UniProtKB/TrEMBL annotation:
Subcellular location: Cytoplasm
Annotated site residue numbers, Discriminates between blocked and unblocked aminoacyl-tRNA: 9
Binding partners and assembly: Monomer.
Protein's UniProt name: Peptidyl-tRNA hydrolase
Key words of the record: Cytoplasm, Hydrolase, RNA-binding, tRNA-binding
NCBIfam families per UniProt: pth
Function per UniProt: Hydrolyzes ribosome-free peptidyl-tRNAs (with 1 or more amino acids incorporated), which drop off the ribosome during protein synthesis, or as a result of ribosome stalling.
Site description Stabilizes the basic form of H active site to accept a proton, residues in chain: 91
Active-site residues, as the UniProt record annotates them: 19 (proton acceptor)
GO molecular function term, any single one: tRNA binding
Gene coding for it: pth
Amino acid sequence: MKLLVGLGNPGPRYCNHRHNIGFMVIERLIQQWQAPAPRKKFNGLMTEVHRENQKVLLLMPQTFMNLSGDSVQQATQWFDLQMEDILVIQDDLDMPFGRFKLRVGGSPGGHNGIADITRKCSSDKYVRAKCGIGRPAPGQTVYQHVLSSFSTEELPELPDIITHVAKAADCWVQEGLAVAMNKFNGNVASI
């Protein structure tokens, strides 16, 4: 069994913000995999699907970003999952827009959702799908940046990035982390 977690903030006010790219990828996977509509569970919206005879859980925590660990911890305990069977899709300020990287563990890098998951699950050994959103513009705070929509220059590239990350997640489920890293880490445009 695998758990895919997309990070974001709930509600229409936040749906197109940079911080919600994790939700965008989970929504794409639900559509692609023709999964049932998500239902309220574990302080989140969750559905499940089978991929190559393996159950895959798709979770979007509804606790707001800074408390994402509540939802992930509940699902992890209920299904008795190992940390290596969890993939968390997140935005990343320290990577330019269009850059993508799968990795295990490491510092939260100032990402409060990741910090909360690590704290509540007592481990950082889950897989992270890091989607670059770039640094704030001059005069813009981090908070303003992550809670802003993608720019008019970025919007045309966003569907390709979401597709790329969804393919990487599917590859991780079916072929494992090493294969997914080799195929998908890097700049989305160059892959």
